[in-house]
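Most newcomers find our protein records easier to grasp once they have seen one. Sequence and backbone structure share a record, each on its own labelled line. Nothing more is needed to start thinking about how sequence determines fold. As an example, a complete record with its sequence and its structure tokens follows.
=====
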Amino acid sequence: MHHYILDSTLREGELFTILPQSSKLRLAEALCDAGVEFIEVTLAYPPRTSLSDTKELISAIKERGAVPVVHARACREDMDSLLEHNSDACAFYIAVSSLHRNYKLHGLSFDDALERLKTACEFARSNGFKYIRATLEDASRLFIEEREKSVEIILDSIEKLRSAGATIVSLPDTSGIMSTRLAGMFFSSISRDAALPLAAHFHNDYGMASANTVEAALSGARELHCTVMGIGDRNGIADMYEVCSILNDVHGLDTGIQRQKISKLYEVFSSVSRMTFHWRHPLSQSARTIRAGVHQSMVVRKPEGYLPAKKLEHDFSSPIYAVSPFLSHRVVEEILSRHRISLPAERTREIAEQIASEATKDGRTSYLVAKIIERQTGIKIREEEITSLFGKERCYILMKLKPQLDAGDVITFLNRFEDVETVDEVYGDVDMVIQARVGPSSSLIKELKHKFSSNIVEMKVLLTD
């Protein structure tokens, strides 16, 4: 079975953060370059959202060989509007659980809800749409509440939707109420006899969206709904990296995504959205940081002892070692070996213990390592060595700006720097807070001061340990 990703960062993700049109276009390009086959966008609702912008986005996706899927309600207004979007792929949705039908759809019966969805599919088929997805919103609740009966109801609904023109049916876990075991049972029980391929769309309310999506894929789901960083309504849906990497690396399944390009896609998204990786994310700097001394000792010799080999192959080439009271003397040995120097183990332990001791008192910075090694051995450690082993230091730049300066000019200037993680306009004693990662020779602060010297009233730079 061929599994593929439908990315919804430009639809579901818009519920979390609104991106400017230029950022959407850049992200669409990166999604296509990474091999995403289907990219979901929201039907335009003028004047709230722009039809011309949506059409431009759809055109850009098509030009790069992906399929733009326009997401719409199963109602006449959206059906008519759909024809203006220049796409031949659409997705209609309507809620089917009694809870949603009674409290959102004013007591609409199940049969009437299904009839609306069938009408939408028939409309799309008659207008030449090639991909027509029918979404039974809150389908997971049916399964949880009625189990075997729900399977019969859903299978019968899928057959009717197929006859109406649907090419795929989505069974979303709208409220994120499924465990991984339930997700597997749900999709395996439906997929065995389903008349159409199934799509999986899991929400993350219990932190299970990515795991549930993987389990759904292993249990018969063909289309897997994800977003970059898992962004979406509430705390999001499945994270593309978490789904694709585990299916590829562990289960050997192809999702169409170019595994080696996922980390680059995430870098693009982080850049255009200014959203940083949470420390728990598999692509965060924290994920490659080795903290325990015994772990560091192993990783210096064989990194895959604590880091998955496929992550080392595709996501980052080397680990980062934490400067802490637990620093291993093996890290000191590694630094010295790069200068073709070998010291007795007792001596490298002394140096490591001194670094650990001073790190406890003065802060855990990579500069401390270079300073102590130079003091103890006379070896000058280059900045590239420090950053390759310990990463760059996080800093916060606080700026008070003159009122006549357009903050947008500063943000545009900062977009040139990959090390800038977030830029926030704030109110109070300062006007802008910039979060970045810098090394000793970083030009960010120097260039920022030079470019806007006449408009910066005050600047403070704070380093974290």
